[in-house]
Design goal:
This protein is α/β, with parallel strands linked by helices and about 325 residues long. About 45% of the residues lie in helices and about 10% in strands. Helix 11 (about 245-265) links the parallel strand 6 (about 235) and strand 7 (about 270). Keywords: Lyase, Schiff base.
Length: about 325
Amino acid sequence: MADLKIAPIGGHATQAGHNAIARNVAQPLDLGWVQGVRVNLSAAERRVATLPGRRTVKKDAQAAWLLKAITCIDLTTLNGDDTAERVKRLCAKAKAPVRADLLDALGMADRGLTTGAICVYHRFVATAVEALAGTGIPVAAVSTGFPAGLIPHDLKLKEIEASVKDGAEEIDIVITREHVLTGNWQALYDEMRDFRAACGQAHVKAILATGDLKTLRNVARASLVCMMAGADFIKTSTGKESVNATLAVTLIMIRMIREYQERTGFKIGYKPAGGISAAKDVLNYQFLMKEELGREWLEPNLFRIGASSLLADIERQLEHHVTGRYSAYNRHAAG
């Protein structure tokens, strides 16, 4: 297993270092481009429905894909009963996401495998930053009145600034869904532009809450407007909506990423979040990213997976690959 193609990136997920790409620069709002977006629903559904049957990996290849997925996980806790100790445990798991004996058996013991980031509420940013000091693992903070995004705009900006001050290198913002549902693209653009400015050097992920946007065309247009306004990543969901990440939504969003790159030259990252808890499911997201955008979008500077329980199932699958036996989930706690 020593030839697994896992780059020794140490999990650092900002767009810097040896995987550096040019950061997105805000473009003028092009309403003609936005209004011209169309989505073929039946074609999109057919595309994603056939994916699991057309693409599969087994044995060593599957282990390699799952190890790569770990480096792209934003290991997340966003619960009302979060505590500092829970966050510290999660940070410990981010630093050592797979048991040492399994990594040794896979020939990966010396590769510095970590998750892509830790994602927490603002209250725990400083705690996570301290726990991860010296690891290169960034802290992402959900912001702007997460998850509904219905607090006053000035408070949203202050929350972003406070998280950046505490050491967050990434900010996951939530958009105002009303702007999308009413077609007020100028308001969405202005809001996203302000969020990007408040983030400064911290990278910003725009959460669209796709389950609230009603149509795939709305998802496509909202994706485009957020990228025009300077988003570094576009993200599906807060994980709190009734419908979160899906392959159909993913297809539409990454095709908008591709179109944006073709027109502007800037590469935008993508983050599905909410409901991705099984290793077999994350493989489908990886396959779609590679097929639609290319190999570069399998790295954490352009691809993230917002998840809490996914890591436990991946580690469980890796143990099965090494030993031939499945173990109980409680032996692979996330934190």
